[in-house]
């Protein structure tokens, strides 16, 4: 008996077509996945090479956490990281603030951030947090205001911007203040005839209410010792007492520059810095001193019963080598955190859409803008902080000198063999 088998050609064809379709889909998805990851890798490389803003990086997220908060997070998995006597940083308020800011980019402690994206210009001064400071637990960004008429009646010659050709700053001849050795037991040690540090002011009319004896949201003055010039003077003199030759260049650009425009403030100060660099070949550090526009409770800290003006470090992302400037600012910031916790309010970056974006920092990797205090800080608080900064900057300089000297000695002396050392020890000099 013969057996007959019936083949359903239509069904076989249908199954074959379905398998081919699945294969095509799998192949298409594989190719698309490869292309996606290739583009992702290329994008990452391009971002690292071209983009100067870390706002979307993990660094930007991690830096927005305080040290205690970060330790508490790690302590959830590693209990020994959190001391038994120390209370957890995970309060309801802190957790709520962190989650809301992470998801919406709105800081509940700063109501302005709620509408900053909707109101044109309101969020233009929002910097990017690079490194948090122990003196800024609420992660409050620095605030800037444009200058108005000064308390002493001073005002820019031409407050409105000149829409024509940019005005040129006249050459300036900055002069260093005399070293003030009062209160010191020993005379300052002079490293040489050339200046090492340059202290200057791009916004020299920024002032302080207690100094002027007024109550204003934007105090300003054209008198050097009645504005940020007094802070620069205190910093320069303190550095001189530490043995670091310092040039304090104070220029009232509104009075000396023809067709002055506030919009070109950093153009004028850049000319001042370049002029100083041409005359002082050993200048290494460039400190642009400003003040913040926030009130006393947000710009002051108390250490051992003594009040200090707090500081912001500002880095311009318009400078393609801004990471080098950030490294210099970090060296100061980290020492502040160790010796005077609470003074630093962190390191913040600004792009060209949030300000000048460069701040003359392309002229030197050891150039930084420091906002010292706010509109309500007293002269004593400002001078105390200036003294602290001077000590740290002087330490950085002298440690660098010692390392350079040690390196040159090591390089200049050829290594001795063990036999030579033994012979030398048997025949001492003299």
From TrEMBL:
<dbReference type="InterPro" id="IPR010897">
    <property type="entry name" value="Spore_II_P"/>
</dbReference>
<feature type="region of interest" description="Disordered">
    <location>
        <begin position="404"/>
        <end position="430"/>
    </location>
</feature>
<feature type="compositionally biased region" description="Basic and acidic residues">
    <location>
        <begin position="155"/>
        <end position="166"/>
    </location>
</feature>
<dbReference type="Pfam" id="PF07454">
    <property type="entry name" value="SpoIIP"/>
</dbReference>
<protein>
    <submittedName>
        <fullName>Stage II sporulation protein P</fullName>
    </submittedName>
</protein>
<feature type="region of interest" description="Disordered">
    <location>
        <begin position="125"/>
        <end position="192"/>
    </location>
</feature>
């Amino acid at each position: 008996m013969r057996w007959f088998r019936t083949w359903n050609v239509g069904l076989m064809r249908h199954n074959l077509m379905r398998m081919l379709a699945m294969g095509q889909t799998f192949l298409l998805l594989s190719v698309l996945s490869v292309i996606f990851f290739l583009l992702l890798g290329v994008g990452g490389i391009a971002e690292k090479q071209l983009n100067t803003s870390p706002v979307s990086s993990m660094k930007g997220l991690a830096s927005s956490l305080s040290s205690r908060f970060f330790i508490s997070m790690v302590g959830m998995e590693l209990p020994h990281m959190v001391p038994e006597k120390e209370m957890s940083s995970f309060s309801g308020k802190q957790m709520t603030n962190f989650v809301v800011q992470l998801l919406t980019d709105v800081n509940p402690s700063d109501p302005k951030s709620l509408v900053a994206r909707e109101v044109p210009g309101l969020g233009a001064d929002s910097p990017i947090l690079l490194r948090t400071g122990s003196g800024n637990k609420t992660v409050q960004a620095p605030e800037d205001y444009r200058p108005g008429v000064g308390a002493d009646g001073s005002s820019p010659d031409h407050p409105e911007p000149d829409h024509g050709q940019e005005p040129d700053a006249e050459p300036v001849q900055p002069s260093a203040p005399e070293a003030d050795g009062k209160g010191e037991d020993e005379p300052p040690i002079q490293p040489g005839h050339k200046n090492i540090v340059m202290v200057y002011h791009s916004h020299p009319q920024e002032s302080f209410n207690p100094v002027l004896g007024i109550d204003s949201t934007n105090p300003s003055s054209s008198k050097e010792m009645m504005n940020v010039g007094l802070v620069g003077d205190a910093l320069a003199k303190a550095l001189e007492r530490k043995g670091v030759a310092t040039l304090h260049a104070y220029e009232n650009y509104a009075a000396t520059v023809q067709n002055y425009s506030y919009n070109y403030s950093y153009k004028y100060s850049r000319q001042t810095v370049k002029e100083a660099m041409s005359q002082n070949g050993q200048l290494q550090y460039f400190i642009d001193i400003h003040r913040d526009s926030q009130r006393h409770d947000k710009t002051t800290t108390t250490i051992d019963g003594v009040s200090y003006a707090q500081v912001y470090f500002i880095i311009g992302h318009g400078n393609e080598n801004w990471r080098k400037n950030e490294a210099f600012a970090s060296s100061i910031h980290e020492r502040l955190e160790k010796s005077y916790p609470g003074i630093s309010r962190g390191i913040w970056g600004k792009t060209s859409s949030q300000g000048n974006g460069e701040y003359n920092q392309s002229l030197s990797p050891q150039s930084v803008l420091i906002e010292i205090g706010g509109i309500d800080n007293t002269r004593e608080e400002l001078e105390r902080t200036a003294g602290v900064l001077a000590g740290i900057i002087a330490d950085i300089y002298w440690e660098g000198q010692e390392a350079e000297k040690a390196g040159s000695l090591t390089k200049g002396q050829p290594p001795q063999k063990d036999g030579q050392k033994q012979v030398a020890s048997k025949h001492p000099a003299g």
